[in-house]
């Protein structure tokens, strides 16, 4: 024992390195063990759903998974196959996995998709945006938009996961919780933005449209990876050296919030017998007077000419209120009178929370709006973190258009917050 201690003392550098390596290895192995326990518990819970008896005449529910293998720097496929796929297969669903090979393929595949009971999106914000755009471009979108959608967060940015699932620092737990939420069947309605240019087909988003200097600088952050934790501040600082002040001119026309109609019941009442339907039609034909067409009130448009450093149009999906009586989207127009120091500081805040609307900004609630950009305007829109060429567009809110699966705990939390 004395010889061992003497050897460790004489070679203290090697001993310190070995101790650190041993500690790191033990911590890594313990983390792997904990992840395997989480996977096992999730699979046992999914197996309980798969063991439920169903009538012999009832077919299995079909689930179509749109997987983006390139998400999370190419790790999405492995994350899905290790953490989500076993749960889906054990649950008794008839699962079809569709892997996308290139950007925009999901939109085309949605046009050819046949009937399915569930749509599951496995990827990040870009995959969600592609799938819902392909879904809502279909000729029969009125019927297909009623199909519930599940979201398995596998991408670098997963904005929807903050609304649908509890926060978790463990990636395996986050993915398994999201997959189990699909099996539990609780859904919430989400708003959708329809963004249409003059000639292009409409694009749809569940989060936001951003246009301005903070977005442009945020896209370049990855170029300064070699600066480590300073890369965000560096990207915004170098942006001020190229052009300052950074102002964006835009003419904005908008219509205010609209009243929310009562939600239709999910279960339709049974159809009455034939003689009852005939009696009702005859009674309406002979007794009811001819309806006088009502005058349609024109929409009250307001117009603003703005100079801003950034403009964003966002849904209320992040602050989901299931009991609100009006439908609207938030338009944040940030003042262009900021110093370079404020720009760098706010840029770091915007990277953490892109929907931050700082003090001094003009906030508008609208159900529709039109952005008129000056001729020759350069730059890009960020639509759900996907880049599109900046052009004049009309943005329309489609309230409660899609239903997404969510964790039952999050739904209870939303309802409790609405009551308070």
Automatic annotation (TrEMBL):
EC number assigned by the record: 2.7.1.107, 2.7.1.138, 2.7.1.94
Record localization: Mitochondrion inner membrane; Mitochondrion intermembrane space
Cofactor(s) it depends on: Mg(2+)
GO biological process: ceramide biosynthetic process; glycerolipid metabolic process; sphingosine biosynthetic process
Gene Ontology MF terms: acylglycerol kinase activity; ATP binding; ATP-dependent diacylglycerol kinase activity; ceramide kinase activity
Alphabetized Pfam families for the sequence: AGK_C (PF19712), DAGK_cat (PF00781)
Membrane topology summary: Peripheral membrane protein
Class of this enzyme: transferase
Protein name: Acylglycerol kinase, mitochondrial
Organism of provenance: Grallaria varia
Lineage: Eukaryota, Metazoa, Chordata, Craniata, Vertebrata
